[in-house]
Amino acid sequence: MGKIKLTINNRVVEAEEGQTVLEVARENGIHIPTLCYLKDLTGTGACRVCQVEIEGARTLCAACVYPVREGLVVKTHSVRALEARKNVVELIVSNHSKDCLSCIRNTNCELQRLCQELGVREDAYAGNKTPSTFDEVSPGIVRDTSKCVLCGRCVAACKKIQGLGVLGFMDRGFKTKVGPVYDRSFNDVNCMQCGQCINVCPVGALHEKEEIHDVINAINDPHKHVIVQTAPAVRASLGEEFGMPIGTRVTGKMVAALKMMGFDRVYDTNFAADLTIMEEGYEFIHRVKEDGVLPMITSCSPGWVNYVETQYPEILDHLSSCKSPHMMFGAMAKSYYAKQQRLDPKDIYVVSVMPCVAKKGEKEREQMINNGMKDVDAVITTRELGKMIKMFGINFKDLADDQFDQDFFGEYSGAGVIFGASGGVMEAALRTVADVLTNQDIEEIEYQQVRGVEGLKEATLNIGDLEVKVAVAQSMSVARPLLEDIKKGTSPYHFIEIMGCPGGCVNGGGQSYINALVRNSGFNYKLARAKALYDEDESLPVRKSHKNKQIQELYDNFLGAPNSHLAHELLHTTYSKREKYPDKD
């Protein structure tokens, strides 16, 4: 496309044909407020907050969809544009619940920010409000339409990222709302509970179901031995809750904060990620050698598992039977750890700090209950942990680094750390599988072919005499073609990693919010967070799961061997077909 010239606020600027006024303005340091717009996701001009004045145009125009042309003259902050924007926001606020002090998004709300920016401080319009729906039935996601601004971001995320279309607009005019079909609960439709809709919601209309107070009550219960574990991706995002740059690795400060809060033990889920690789790696080797079902697909992402159980139940036998790492950790805590510490498993309370909303539902699955006890008792997101740290009055940024407890589950490898990035599970598995199949200690362990946070990644690897074809996909819109090939029996792969969220766990539905200004700037926040994990991997002395000495001790002293009978009893699970729209009876 060719270059053109236009004038924005009395300044001549250059642009590419096909760009919008909003894009060109931002490239030239001119801020035009938006609400519904998200780069590469939405661009409908629905909210009209980004209205600008175009010379010669009869009405104001939405900058997010208005294409530039040669000689165009734009005023972004004329009196007419400013008054129109303020009026639009006043109308949105008039139908909003305005319980800001008790809202989960208080001080981190885009509508709040717009009101401050545009000087909206009073109710300019009074009257009835649209009838609202409050849904907290599902294990992970809460929907409150009294706060919805009808921006359509969640609708676009569900459709474009996951290819599901669970959310949509319903009714018309004043009664318009957003939700699942027939205004049903998330629990009664084929929602995978990934939480990407939460990540793009500008207000508090969608959020995770909080378990903060359950955790605090457990910490203060003298009869409970409370263990907390933290997923690898959390350390790459938690700092953002305290104003630190995106991608800052805060492992030591996170541990220090958790210990100050009073947990009896603070461990890293990376130990269990190493354990997962042992079980999953040997499961893959067994399938290859014994002509088992291939390709084998990872089962670490509960959002992906929810999806395949409803959308592709006919390929469930392709999934690894391994539980996800944090569930394996819970199972070990209430068996091996309880035995070593001479504790009644019923007195152990396991808390998982996860970047994921779907993990909240995963812990409730029937298959994750042993001897009447859940493997994991509570799941809190990265955002929830940030709130807890603030509630406890901890000055996070000034904390000195501390270390995870070193007994039993304290050691972890670099392979466990990279689980949080797309391709990390595959790379970690290959590091172990390659050593086992060749009976060597292979030095080249960085599989760059499967790294990256965007799109589909494929590789063909020669491991000894075996040619292994692998693929890595994140989000269901990317994974669907792979699943269709498996369904048709034409898949060329041996091993596939699938994660429910684009970019993997670093962009999970429970991670710190990335505001629209950052998203629209083009900054690759997923890559920044992933880099933090790969940096930690490189810094560790042990980078292969099977070389973790505490993992070796666990097998020697308790499990026996990977895929043993006891390992299958505690660390593996089953999957089953679920109806897309279960009856509400």
What is the global morphology?
A: globular
Which strands sit side by side, in order, in the main sheet? 2-1-5-3-4
Rg to the nearest angstrom? 25 Å
Q: Helix amount, in percent?
A: 25-40%
Strand proportion, as a percent range, falls in 5-15%
CATH hierarchy: architecture of the largest domain: 3-Layer(aba) Sandwich
Straight-line N-to-C gap: 57 Å
CATH topology (fold) name of the largest domain: Rossmann fold
Mean pLDDT figure: 95
Number of strands: 20
Q: What class would the helix/strand composition place it in?
A: alpha/beta
Quickly count the helices: 19
The profile of the biggest β sheet is:
5 strands, mixed
Number of domains: 3
**Briefly, what CATH class of the largest domain?**
Alpha Beta
Unreliable spans are none
Write the layout of secondary structure elements.
Elements: E1 3-8, E2 11-16, H1 21-27, E3 51-54, E4 61-62, E5 73-75, H2 79-94, H3 110-118, E6 134-135, E7 141-144, H4 153-161, E8 168-170, E9 177-179, H5 196-200, E10 206-208, H6 212-219, E11 225-230, H7 251-261, E12 265-268, H8 269-289, E13 296-297, H9 302-311, H10 325-341, E14 348-354, H11 358-362, E15 369-370, E16 373-374, E17 378-381, H12 382-391, H13 414-417, H14 424-438, E18 457-463, E19 466-474, H15 476-488, E20 495-499, H16 516-521, H17 525-539, H18 549-559, H19 565-571
Parallel strand pairs: 1-5, 11-12, 11-14, 13-20, 14-17, 19-20
Antiparallel strand pairs: 1-2, 3-4, 3-5, 6-7, 7-10, 8-9, 15-16, 18-19
Helix pairs in contact: 2-3, 8-10, 8-14
